[in-house]
């Protein structure tokens, strides 16, 4: 399985994280967990779509072009033979601008993009399915995104979102005061524009950082990753792993989560 990821250029950086391509044998029939990373995905299956495994064990075949909202628990996929997938990984502010819908409405949901925004699907599909080199296709996708986002209004919670993403400790009452908003108003706007509450979003970002560290340098150990990612201790990290990955770190990585580790490989944190 080959995974390639291309970071978004200015002025899309900060709105779009990356465009990615997944090709080749993906382990047909072997469940693959995808863990929360604080972002929203647009995913086009150019080959046989993956299936999503529900809590009851039922596999539901995904549509060819899907929208995956913020995750608060692992999403388990069943690949179907050789993969040919194109993904657009959106930062929350970019997803809110692009989709124009409350992002908390699609948290932990995977839906057909055409049912949510058929115009967006029509605008992106030619670039996603275009022939040419990977570089040419990537530039075409970024161009299509830039046209759709041109002139869109800025986020009303931009400074608050930036503070959390830069590692600020979440004290909602203090953030609300700095933003000049009632605390409940800030909470509501944050869930609308991000898909998660401020504290949960911070937890997901910290987990994302720890997950990337363990994927890149597993020999460093869990305690070292916990410290570098800002956890109090290893037990603190283990609690978040159980929530967001469904298992403690050692058990999770023993399961050979190829997709989750591929997606973590492009992290810049």
Description:
With 269 residues, the chain is of the alpha+beta class. It folds into three domains: 148 residues, Jelly Rolls (Sandwich), CATH 2.60.120; 38 residues; 62 residues, Arc Repressor Mutant, subunit A (Orthogonal Bundle), CATH 1.10.10. The protein is 44% helix and 19% strand. The strands form two sheets. A six-stranded antiparallel beta sheet has the order 1-2-9-4-7-10. The protein starts with a strand and ends in a 5-residue tail after the last helix. The mean pLDDT is 90.
Give me the secondary-structure topology.
Elements: E1 2-7, E2 16-25, E3 32-34, E4 40-45, E5 51-53, E6 59-61, E7 65-68, E8 75-78, E9 82-90, H1 92-99, E10 110-112, H2 113-116, H3 118-128, H4 134-149, H5 158-165, H6 172-179, H7 183-194, H8 198-216, H9 222-229, H10 234-244, H11 249-254, H12 258-264
TL;DR?
The protein has 269 residues and is of the alpha+beta class. It has helices at residues 92-99, 113-116, 118-128, 134-149, 158-165, 172-179, 183-194, 198-216, 222-229, 234-244, 249-254, 258-264; strands spanning 2-7, 16-25, 32-34, 40-45, 51-53, 59-61, 65-68, 75-78, 82-90, 110-112. The chain folds into three domains: 2-149, Jelly Rolls, CATH 2.60.120.10; 158-195; 203-264, Arc Repressor Mutant, subunit A, CATH 1.10.10.
The helix fraction, in percent, is 40-55%
CATH class value of the largest domain: Mainly Beta
Q: Which segments are poorly predicted (pLDDT under 50) over 5 or more consecutive residues?
A: none
In the sheet with the most strands, the strands line up as 1-2-9-4-7-10
Percent strand equals 15-25%
Radius of gyration over all CA atoms, rounded: 18 Å
Instruction: Give the SSE order as H and E letters.
Output: EEEEEEEEEHEHHHHHHHHHHH
Stated plainly, the CATH topology of the largest domain is called Jelly Rolls
Tell me the major beta sheet: 6 strands, antiparallel
How many structural domains?
A: 3
Distance between the termini: 24 Å
Instruction: Look at the helices and sheets and give the structural class.
Output: alpha+beta
Shape: globular
Name the average pLDDT.
90
Give the count of helical stretches: 12
CATH superfamily of the largest domain: Jelly Rolls
> What is the annotated CATH architecture of the largest domain?
Sandwich
The count of DSSP E runs of length 2 or more, i.e. the number of strands, is 10
């Amino acid at each position: 399985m080959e995974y390639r990821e291309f970071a978004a250029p200015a002025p899309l950086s900060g709105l779009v994280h990356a465009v990615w391509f997944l090709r080749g044998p993906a382990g047909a029939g072997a469940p693959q967990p995808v863990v929360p990373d604080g972002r929203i995905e647009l995913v086009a299956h150019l080959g046989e779509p993956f299936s999503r495994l529900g809590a009851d064990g039922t596999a539901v075949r995904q549509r060819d072009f899907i929208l995956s909202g913020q995750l608060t628990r692992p999403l388990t996929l069943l690949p179907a033979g050789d993969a040919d997938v194109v993904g657009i990984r959106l930062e929350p502010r970019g997803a809110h601008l692009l989709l124009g819908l409350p992002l908390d409405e699609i948290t932990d949901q995977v839906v057909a993009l055409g049912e949510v925004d058929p115009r967006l699907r029509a605008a992106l599909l030619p670039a996603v399915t275009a022939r040419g080199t990977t570089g040419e296709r990537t530039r075409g996708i970024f161009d299509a995104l830039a046209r759709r986002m041109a002139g869109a209004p800025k986020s009303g919670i931009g400074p608050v979102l930036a503070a959390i993403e830069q590692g600020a400790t979440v004290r909602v009452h203090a953030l609300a005061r700095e933003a000049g908003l009632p605390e409940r108003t800030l909470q509501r706007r944050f869930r609308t524009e991000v898909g998660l509450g401020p504290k949960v979003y911070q937890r997901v970002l910290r987990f994302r950082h720890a997950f990337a560290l363990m994927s890149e340098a597993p020999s460093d150990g869990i305690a070292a990753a916990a410290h570098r990612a800002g956890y109090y201790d290893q037990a603190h990290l283990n609690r978040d792993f159980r929530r967001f990955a469904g298992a403690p770190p050692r058990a999770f990585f023993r399961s050979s989560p190829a997709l989750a580790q591929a997606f973590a490989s492009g992290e810049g944190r």
